[in-house]
Amino acid sequence: MSLDRTPVQEAQLDVSDDFSEIYNKYFPRLYKYILYRVGDLNTAEDLVSDVFEKALAKYNTYCPDKGKLSTWLFTIANNTITNYFKKKNQDTELIDLNHVEARDRLEDLIIDRELKAVLLKSMAYLNDRQKNVIALKFGACLTNRQIAQMMNITESNVGTIIFRSLKKLKDVLKEQNIIY
Question: Which pTM was predicted?
């Protein structure tokens, strides 16, 4: 049996191999970013799948000269999230903390759940731009420069948004007597 392939088949295999590497590298970051934005594990899984489907379908249109691959992928993710909220016409829901990472000790799990719930509730006090920057920074682990490029703002503006958002979260937590 011969494994002779046409040039088109060879190109498809190359794209498949490249895209597998991209998927493995960016899935965790995209998933965490989307989870920060939508607050639901199942929805985040569905949306990250949509992002990779769209990216694969349009992979041949990606041009490295126009921007980084990560920026391209996170732009697709942001647009997917925006479309999701438009379609569903809903606000962010809180995460089901029963399905979040298990811990070895019950006490740690309870404390972790409470802290995550408080932080997610506190995120509701941020505007959409602040939520997006916080999700990109801490969910997707992007640098300020990457966030700035993606959102068409300056790096210093990203830093200012992060600073003000964290201060606002801190103030909310103080008001709720969570921190002193």
Answer: 0.62
